[in-house]
Amino acid sequence: MNREYLENKETIHFKFEQNKEDFIVDEIPLSFKGNGNFAILHVKKVELTTWDMIAAFAEFLNIPAEKIGYGGLKDKHATTTQYISVEAKYEKQLKKFRHPQIKILTVTRHTHSIRMGDLAGNRFSINLFGVTQIEAGRIEKLARKSEKNGLPNYFGYQRFGRDEDSIEQARAMIAGDLHVNDAKLKKFLVSIYQSLYFNDWLKERVLLSREKNGGKFMLLEGDVYLSDEEKLFTPKSTPQKDFQAKKVVPTGLLPGRNVYRARGEAREIEAKYDDEFLYDKGLRRAALVYPQDITCKYKNHFDILNIAFTLPKGSYATVFLENIANKNFKAKRL
């Protein structure tokens, strides 16, 4: 399974490491009221999964992990900040919390617990190694081009496991050849199955755009769009002006029940990557995202380029880097 990008250009060779010094992720939250029955912790974690961090707080407070709210999962091999919530009655107890890989930065209040998806996006700061000065200029130019024209919103390699072994498990489970009792694992494997279909659909649309639209994402009659007000709709005609103004974005299908499906020309492609018999709830995902606030700082004597950028929630920094490099990356064996 490979991911294709809108420009079929020469590959740029650089390296990056997902570690605490060279891969920094900061969650951008939604606004908090400043009062209410829940304590909102702004937490910094180093070389820990979000699950490990939540488990540490759950053990310290002697509460089930389900009582701790969070907006999204953050990389393990990185330094990351994110927001979690607990009932405000634990605020005093948390002043004694100590952990070598976790630090509480600030505490505020809110009227309800943080729920999955309760974030605006993520800010990344990543060091790229082995970059010449000329390549640094090319990288910045390509990054800014994706800021203007959009970045294919693939699920990154992290979604599918180190050897993409999760894909085979998911297929076997859906086909009825693998029985899974664990509800969380079952939900995870269904999401893998849906993500694979989405990526394959997006790849075909990207290749079509390269062939027939000069490397700019090509809209089709019957596409389902997401408005800037987060509403899904299928217009009577292709909304090219609104698309160029970034007021609407085409979406792809994560198959399942009770989901809005494309029509006409767009449906002809989408139907190849659909499973109408899947019982789990379907979703739609933006086909493109627009990186923002891109900055590049080149360390001339070390051939290191630091690139910082902001992506919407659910989008992958490694996909942004793949788009620039014009190559696919894989999870490294540890």
UniProtKB/TrEMBL annotation:
The active site is at 75 (nucleophile). Keywords: Isomerase, tRNA processing. It comes from the Bacteria. GO terms for cellular component: cytosol. Pfam families: TruD. GO terms for biological process: tRNA pseudouridine synthesis. It catalyses: uridine(13) in tRNA = pseudouridine(13) in tRNA. Residues 150-307 form the TRUD domain. GO terms for molecular function: RNA binding; tRNA pseudouridine(13) synthase activity. Belongs to the pseudouridine synthase TruD family. Responsible for synthesis of pseudouridine from uracil-13 in transfer RNAs. This is tRNA pseudouridine synthase D. The lineage of its organism: Bacteria, Pseudomonadati, Campylobacterota, Epsilonproteobacteria, Campylobacterales. The gene is truD.
